[in-house]
Amino acid sequence: MKTWIKNLSLVTSGLVLGIGISFSGDISAATSKLLGGKVGKVMTVTLDNKNIGEAPVIGGTSYVPVRTAANSLGLEVTVEGNEIKLSSPEDVLSNEEMAAIAKQQQEEAEKAAAVENKKNEEKKKVEEAIETAKRKITNADNSIANSSTLLEHAKAGKAAGAVGMDSIIKAYEEDIVSAKSFKEQQEKELANLESQLAALK
Q: What is the pLDDT of residues 101-134, one digit of tens each?
């Protein structure tokens, strides 16, 4: 915001023409020497490639309009008697203040990025756990279906007079009960994980 500093010499090098302000009092001795001076030529003055006015050359010295140049450089212009005062606006920050603000913004950005990264890592873990729970539920369903089919065959064999089918039937029934219990646990875990994922979004 203080790009005007490097150009301050432009304003302070005898800027006297094009002020656009009337002020009382006698003209200073230094300025009075310009009266009646011959304008050698008029030069165009630019700031960052933008035309901000013209500078007449008198006695080998160019003179830039004070108010135009000062305002272009972000300076405030006031006139008190024979004195033209240039001052920086109150809202212009010093280099130290700007550096402090930039540092604070950088720290806040890094903290925000760290929080976001941690959140994304947690989301990834939960999403992976959800996929694992879904696979376990699918496996439990397959196990229940297979055991149920084998149970029906075992019961049919017993009905047909096959010997020793009671223990086989019992084993299949236990497998079905165990698979159903496991599936119920995984469904509860899945519901909990999905709630966690929703909270992270």
A: 999 999 999 999 999 999 999 999 999 999 999 9
Q: Where are the beta strands (DSSP E) in 2-75?
A: 39-47, 50-58, 61-62
* 109 and 175 inside one domain: yes
Q: In the beta sheet, which residues pair with residue 61?
A: 58
- Domain match, 82 and 103 both: no
Domain co-membership, 135 together with 187: yes
CA nearest neighbour of 150 among 119, 174, 127, 121 = 174
The overall pTM is greater than 0.85:
no
Question: Which single residue is written with the structure tokens 């009266």?
Answer: 35
CA-to-CA distance for 54 and 63, rounded, in angstroms? 8
Average of per-residue pLDDT across 69-98: 75
pLDDT for 30-78, tens place per residue? 455 556 667 778 888 787 777 777 877 777 787 777 777 777 777 777 8
The rounded Cα 194 to chain-centroid distance in angstroms is 29
Q: Is the pLDDT of residue 25 over 60?
A: no
Q: Which two tokens stand for residue 116?
A: 């976001």
Do 64 and 135 lie in one domain? The reply is no
Measured between alpha carbons, how far is 141 from 129 in angstroms, rounded to an integer? 18
Q: How many domains does the chain have?
A: 2
Please check whether residues 155 and 108 belong to one and the same domain: yes
Residue 192 and residue 115 share a domain: yes
Give the structural domain span for 66.
5-87
Q: Both 114 and 21 in a single domain?
A: no
